[in-house]
TrEMBL record:
<keyword id="KW-0732">Signal</keyword>
<protein>
    <recommendedName>
        <fullName>Lipoprotein</fullName>
    </recommendedName>
</protein>
<feature type="region of interest" description="Disordered">
    <location>
        <begin position="81"/>
        <end position="113"/>
    </location>
</feature>
<feature type="signal peptide">
    <location>
        <begin position="1"/>
        <end position="26"/>
    </location>
</feature>
Length: 113
Protein backbone atom coordinates (compact mmCIF):
# COMPACT_ATOMS: atom_id res chain seq x y z
CA UNK A 1 0.00 0.00 0.00
CA UNK A 2 0.92 3.62 0.22
CA UNK A 3 3.05 5.42 2.80
CA UNK A 4 0.24 7.93 3.54
CA UNK A 5 -1.73 7.13 6.71
CA UNK A 6 -5.45 6.49 6.15
CA UNK A 7 -6.72 9.43 8.28
CA UNK A 8 -4.76 11.86 6.06
CA UNK A 9 -6.40 10.73 2.81
CA UNK A 10 -9.70 12.65 3.30
CA UNK A 11 -7.73 15.76 4.28
CA UNK A 12 -5.50 15.39 1.22
CA UNK A 13 -8.54 14.94 -1.03
CA UNK A 14 -10.16 18.04 0.47
CA UNK A 15 -7.03 20.11 -0.11
CA UNK A 16 -6.83 18.96 -3.73
CA UNK A 17 -10.48 19.89 -4.30
CA UNK A 18 -10.03 23.30 -2.71
CA UNK A 19 -6.92 23.94 -4.77
CA UNK A 20 -8.74 23.10 -7.98
CA UNK A 21 -11.74 25.25 -7.01
CA UNK A 22 -9.60 28.25 -6.11
CA UNK A 23 -7.99 28.69 -9.50
CA UNK A 24 -7.87 32.36 -10.34
CA UNK A 25 -10.24 33.58 -13.08
CA UNK A 26 -8.28 35.94 -15.32
CA UNK A 27 -11.39 36.72 -17.38
CA UNK A 28 -12.64 39.77 -15.43
CA UNK A 29 -9.22 41.42 -15.69
CA UNK A 30 -9.04 40.74 -19.43
CA UNK A 31 -12.59 42.04 -19.85
CA UNK A 32 -11.69 45.23 -17.97
CA UNK A 33 -8.66 45.80 -20.25
CA UNK A 34 -10.80 45.24 -23.34
CA UNK A 35 -13.45 47.64 -22.04
CA UNK A 36 -10.78 50.29 -21.40
CA UNK A 37 -9.59 49.96 -25.00
CA UNK A 38 -13.21 50.13 -26.16
CA UNK A 39 -13.86 53.33 -24.20
CA UNK A 40 -10.66 54.93 -25.48
CA UNK A 41 -11.81 54.47 -29.09
CA UNK A 42 -15.33 55.67 -28.28
CA UNK A 43 -13.99 58.82 -26.59
CA UNK A 44 -11.80 59.55 -29.61
CA UNK A 45 -14.83 59.15 -31.89
CA UNK A 46 -13.26 56.37 -33.97
CA UNK A 47 -15.81 55.17 -36.57
CA UNK A 48 -16.92 51.50 -36.38
CA UNK A 49 -15.30 50.68 -39.73
CA UNK A 50 -11.83 51.74 -38.50
CA UNK A 51 -9.25 48.91 -38.28
CA UNK A 52 -8.50 49.96 -34.69
CA UNK A 53 -11.61 48.07 -33.62
CA UNK A 54 -10.02 44.77 -34.73
CA UNK A 55 -7.62 44.96 -31.78
CA UNK A 56 -10.50 45.63 -29.38
CA UNK A 57 -12.46 42.66 -30.76
CA UNK A 58 -9.34 40.49 -30.31
CA UNK A 59 -9.06 41.64 -26.69
CA UNK A 60 -12.66 40.64 -25.99
CA UNK A 61 -12.04 37.30 -27.74
CA UNK A 62 -9.01 36.73 -25.45
CA UNK A 63 -11.31 36.42 -22.42
CA UNK A 64 -11.11 32.69 -21.54
CA UNK A 65 -14.12 30.63 -22.62
CA UNK A 66 -14.52 29.13 -19.13
CA UNK A 67 -14.47 32.54 -17.41
CA UNK A 68 -17.52 34.01 -15.70
CA UNK A 69 -16.81 37.19 -17.73
CA UNK A 70 -17.10 35.42 -21.09
CA UNK A 71 -20.88 35.98 -21.59
CA UNK A 72 -20.35 39.76 -21.35
CA UNK A 73 -17.38 39.53 -23.72
CA UNK A 74 -19.49 37.54 -26.20
CA UNK A 75 -22.17 40.27 -26.14
CA UNK A 76 -19.56 42.94 -26.87
CA UNK A 77 -17.97 40.86 -29.63
CA UNK A 78 -21.33 40.36 -31.36
CA UNK A 79 -22.21 44.06 -31.14
CA UNK A 80 -18.79 45.20 -32.35
CA UNK A 81 -18.75 42.77 -35.28
CA UNK A 82 -22.20 43.93 -36.33
CA UNK A 83 -21.20 47.60 -36.19
CA UNK A 84 -17.75 46.96 -37.66
CA UNK A 85 -19.25 45.98 -41.01
CA UNK A 86 -21.82 48.79 -41.01
CA UNK A 87 -21.14 52.24 -42.36
CA UNK A 88 -22.66 55.08 -40.41
CA UNK A 89 -25.23 57.17 -42.24
CA UNK A 90 -24.14 60.59 -43.39
CA UNK A 91 -24.91 63.41 -41.03
CA UNK A 92 -27.86 65.46 -42.31
CA UNK A 93 -27.10 68.95 -43.52
CA UNK A 94 -30.36 70.27 -42.14
CA UNK A 95 -33.17 69.24 -39.84
CA UNK A 96 -36.80 69.40 -40.94
CA UNK A 97 -39.19 71.75 -39.15
CA UNK A 98 -36.34 73.95 -37.87
CA UNK A 99 -35.87 77.55 -38.95
CA UNK A 100 -32.96 77.78 -41.39
CA UNK A 101 -32.69 73.98 -41.25
CA UNK A 102 -31.59 74.07 -37.62
CA UNK A 103 -28.41 76.02 -38.30
CA UNK A 104 -27.93 79.71 -37.66
CA UNK A 105 -27.48 81.88 -40.71
CA UNK A 106 -23.86 82.77 -41.34
CA UNK A 107 -22.34 85.80 -43.03
CA UNK A 108 -19.69 85.55 -45.76
CA UNK A 109 -16.96 85.05 -43.09
CA UNK A 110 -18.76 82.13 -41.40
CA UNK A 111 -19.91 84.17 -38.38
CA UNK A 112 -23.51 83.96 -37.09
CA UNK A 113 -25.70 86.87 -38.18
Amino acid sequence: MSDIPRPCLPLLALLLLLGAACQRDAGPEQLARAQASYLALVERGVPPSDPGWDAVIAEFEAVPRDSKARPEADKRIAALKQLHGTKLPRRPLSRPNEPDGGSPSLDEHGHPM
